Amino acid sequence: MKQSSWTTYPFMPVLLFASIFPDIDGLFSGTVAGHHSILHTPIFWIIIFTGMSLVNVFLKIDVIKPISFGIFLGAQLHLFTDWLTARTVGIQWLYPLSQKDYYLFQIQPEKGQVSIWKMVQNPYFSFYMENKVLFWGEIGVILIAGALLIYHNQIHSQIRGTSVK
Ligand SMILES: [Zn+2]
After folding, report:
1. What is the rounded CA–CA span in Å between residue 111 and residue 81?
2. 99 C-alpha to center of ligand 1: Å?
3. Percent of the chain with pLDDT over 90
4. What Cα–Cα distance (Å) separates residue 62 from each residue in 47, 69, 107?
5. In the chain, what are the domain boundaries?
6. How far is CA 13 from CA 18, 28, 129, 154, in A?
7. 75 alpha carbon – ligand 1 mean position (Å)
8. pTM, to two decimals
9. Which residues surround ligand 1, an ion (CB under 5 A)?
């Protein structure tokens, strides 16, 4: 099967890395609610993607394609899920045109005035579990992803007689 050059190696590892990378800004902020920097705005990643695409147009370095696409898609997936599961801070989809914060369920910014390291402790963790739809939805997604990974590995080991690395 022919694969698009946008999704050839190292697209997958870059996608995985980029899908968690925006939260690096949490290390530099004092609170959970305050941790969304420019890394949590789509415009930043559009500029990065455009810049990398321009470099590719002029220098024709093929590996830039899967890397730039992986970064772009991974970061957008992160922003989308942060929007979907926002509890204390949303996503500024239109930044810098507007500073408006977008979220799906009503957020409570005052509950996020704790340090990142306090997120796994009470009272933050109880607040985190308050929205049962979100909480069990998140657990469900993790379980489905784990099941898919196991299924995928089994199919490959049946085909090749080896497991996927
Ligand atoms: Zn985030």
Report:
1. 19
2. 17
3. 76
4. 19, 12, 43
5. 11-113
6. 9, 25, 30, 21
7. 9
8. 0.87
9. 22-23, 82
